[in-house]
Inverse folding.
């Protein structure tokens, strides 16, 4: 599925729609360069999950946790992760993913360690405000954008 957004608000709204459809155990794996809009998209996911919009980049923390009433969104940054040992040292395998949702920036660094059911989202900056968002989810959410 391919979506074009023209403003950061449209990107947030697309992510909000997707976030409202997510279930416990869903893992979102982002692909996209620096400044593509991964954190902006995560802000929309958080709103859609009913958690709120106080999302910031996890660049220096490696993971930010956003707790809602019934669910937590784990927002990872894997930019500096280069091996399975690096991944283990972050405590990644200790998070209760089955009960919550995870969004992973720079997921290409850990792709071989992600579950088969991972939802892949590629965000390409077309210009300063426009984004091409490609969602690879096996068709799970296609009806939401019909």
């Amino acid at each position: 599925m391919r979506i074009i957004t023209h403003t950061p608000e449209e990107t947030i709204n697309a992510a909000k729609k997707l976030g409202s459809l997510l279930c416990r155990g869903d893992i979102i794996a982002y692909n996209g360069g620096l400044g593509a809009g991964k954190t902006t998209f995560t802000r929309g996911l958080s709103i859609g999950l009913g958690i709120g919009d106080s999302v910031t980049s996890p660049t220096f923390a490696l993971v930010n946790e956003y707790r809602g009433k019934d669910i937590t969104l784990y927002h990872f940054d894997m930019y500096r992760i280069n091996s399975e040992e690096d991944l283990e040292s972050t405590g990644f395998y200790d998070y209760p993913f089955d009960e919550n949702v995870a969004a992973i920036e720079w997921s290409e660094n850990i792709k071989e360690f992600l579950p088969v059911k991972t939802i892949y989202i590629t965000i390409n900056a077309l210009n300063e405000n426009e984004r091409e968002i490609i969602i690879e989810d096996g068709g799970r959410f296609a009806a939401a954008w019909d």
